[in-house]
Write a structure and sequence with these properties.
single chain, about 150 residues, alpha/beta, Rossmann fold, four-stranded parallel β-sheet
């Protein structure tokens, strides 16, 4: 295992997911990418700097999230495990899956719930979408896909 992606929304669930990722990384000599996604339905990555400037509230949220994520990583960083912090803008599940694919992540460790947790739900909406859309490199999964 080389790369683990951990979505961080600053909830207790995300903190627990990060701690789990650290345990896994320490056993497998892996690195961790922590990602925070500022929610937006805009296609932020395709927008020019000028067009982004028309959305100062998103720029402020992204800057705040970047600072908070850096502080989170500093506070929780484990010795000898490389941890990278990335802040993105967009739909959280989509951006998490895109990042995991781009980095050829071996694993996504995500909390069952996030900041918007409502009691009575089995798991949160973001994790549901990540589960449905993330690539599974597991040989057993690939064989089961062939059988479909």
């Amino acid at each position: 295992m080389k790369r683990i992606v951990v979505p961080i929304d600053f909830s207790q669930y995300a903190e627990n997911a990060f701690k789990t990722a650290v345990k896994i990384a320490s056993k497998g000599d892996a690195s961790i990418t922590c990602v925070n996604v500022v929610y937006s339905e805009l296609e932020w990555d395709r927008m020019s700097q000028g067009d982004r400037g028309k959305h100062p509230e998103l720029l402020d949220l992204a800057a705040e999230a970047e600072d908070k994520l850096k502080a989170f990583v500093q506070e929780h960083k484990a010795q000898d495990i490389p941890v990278e912090a990335i802040t993105l803008v967009g739909l959280p599940a989509e951006r998490i899956v895109e990042l995991a694919k781009k980095q050829a992540a071996d694993l996504i460790v995500i909390g069952a719930y996030g900041k918007g947790h409502e009691s009575g739900k089995y798991i949160g909406g973001t994790i549901q979408r990540v589960l449905r859309h993330a690539h599974c490199p597991c040989p057993r999964c690939e064989k089961s896909d062939e059988l479909k």
